[in-house]
Amino acid sequence: MDRRVVEVDVGRSVYEANKRLADEFRMLLDSYGVRAYEFMGSPGSGKTSLIERLIGIALNNGYEASSIGYIGGDVATSLDTERVSKHGVQHVQINTGNICHLEVPHIYQAVEKLDLRRLKMLFIENVGNLICPANFPLGAHRRVLVVSVAEGEDKFVKHPLTTRLADVIVINKVDLASAAYVDLDKMERDARSLNPRAPIVRTSARTGEGVDKLYHVLLGG
Ligand code: MG
Ligand code: ZN
Q1: CA distance 208 to 164
Q2: Distance of CA 49 from the midpoint of ligand 2 (Å)
Q3: 10-220 in CATH: which number?
């Protein structure tokens, strides 16, 4: 038996390397006084719409458009970035091709196209995916998990790791809760049982309900 064999835990070394890169990126953001918020969630959960609402609130609260940044990750198209760019903020689209989540090197490439000295607030929208983005932190100060009621009541229990790792949990599309036969209190209890520390905010990006609260949770914490 060859005792010199080392079984490499590929997953672990990749995750650890990524974590170090994420910490370095956060230090870069801190040196420029930029606070970053990463949004994770399924395709269609409402990440882009929520970010647009939050940008609107920030602009109303006196933030200059150029002090707000948006990095959008999608497999293809720049549709989301086009939407967000209408608000006049700094913006970059990352097309990942076949990759189903963003990684820190992608973010570094995107940030080269932003003027960090002017930035105060950076929104990073991960690729629509509830599974692997959780394993690849990007260095944002807050990781926001968005789940919409249209995805079904059991979304949190089916994705325990992502739910546990979130700093803020958003239940979006609450205006559709009764149409989707979803018990919001049960959803919230499920999320709370997996993650006792994250604030849970109920929102509707469509009506604007709860978005002020989300804004204050993000900026306050
Ligand atoms: Mg989107
Ligand atoms: Zn992935």
Answers
A1: 26
A2: 22
A3: 3.40.50.300
162: CA distance to ligand 2 center in Å? Answer: 13
Per-residue DSSP letters for 92-106? EEEE-TT-SS--HHH
What residues form DSSP beta bridges with 143? 38
Going from the Cα of 46 to the center of ligand 1, the distance in angstroms, rounded, reads 7
Q: Decide if pLDDT at 84 tops 60.
A: yes
The tens digit of pLDDT for each residue in 28-41 reads 999 999 999 999 99
Q: How confident is the model at residue 50 (pLDDT cuts 50, 70, 90)?
A: very high
The reported pLDDT for the residue numbered 220 is: 85
Ligand nearest to the CA of 78: 1
For residues 55-74, give the mean pLDDT: 97
Q: Which tokens is 221 given?
A: 């914490």
127 Cα–ligand 2 center, Å? 8
The pTM of this model reads 0.93
Cα torsion angle, 202, 205, 35, 99, sign: positive
Q: Is there a contact between 70 and 81 (Cβ–Cβ < 8 Å)? A: yes
Query: Cα 74 from chain centroid?
Result: 13
Residues near 82 by beta carbon (within 8 Å), at least 6 away in sequence: none
Compute, in degrees rounded to 10, the torsion defined by CA atoms 92, 58, 46, 149. 160
